[in-house]
Amino acid sequence: MRLALLLLLLGAWAIPGGLGDRAPLTATAPQLDDEEKYSAHMPAHLRCDACRAVAYQMSQHLTKAEAKLHTLDSGEHQELSESVYTDVLDQSCSQTWQDYGVREENQVKRLTGPGLNKVPEPSISVMITGGPWPTRLFTTCLHYLGEFGEDQIYEAHQQGRGALETLLCGGPRGACSEDEQVTRTEL
Q1: Which of 6, 11, 16, 69 is 20 to 30 A away from residue 141, measured at CA?
Q2: pLDDT tens digit sequence for 93-108
Q3: Can you say whether the dihedral through the CA atoms of 161, 165, 168, 170 is positive or negative?
Q4: pLDDT tens track for 3-18
Q5: Strand pairing partners for 130?
Q6: How far is CA 172 from CA 87, 99, 176, 184, in A?
Q7: Angle, helices 82-94/47-69, rounded to nearest 10 degrees
């Protein structure tokens, strides 16, 4: 039995399209520059991803809070009170952010984690989590709370995740605007 398995495995190396024709899988961690390693702020080229992650988390937290209010008997959508959505938004910023990190895709570093677009993944990749990323996302989240306020964020959330992401990340000066993208590539 062992000999048959060994011959089968050895045969796979010799068969065209077998294991022997594949390039070996290797993975290396992204090489972070000084700004990515040591800056207290989110690097400019990752701000759009960070904004989208914050919008996703705010939306998820608000949706969960609304689901708790929604009773099967009423059948209608109930709005959160100002004190509740203010607390929920504070909690969305105060989470650990441990599921987020940076990964290199096609020689471009991207923030990755829940709510960020899934790009076709290579067969193997390395994502760096922890370190400065949770603090940077926490700071980014607080920045948006301060810039837009809980009322405006909740109103956008009620219009849908796309509206919340557009509010936080879009617009002429938003982290995902084309002007911001051009500025990043010129640096």
Answers
A1: 69
A2: 999 999 998 888 777 8
A3: negative
A4: 333 333 344 444 455 5
A5: none
A6: 29, 29, 9, 14
A7: 140
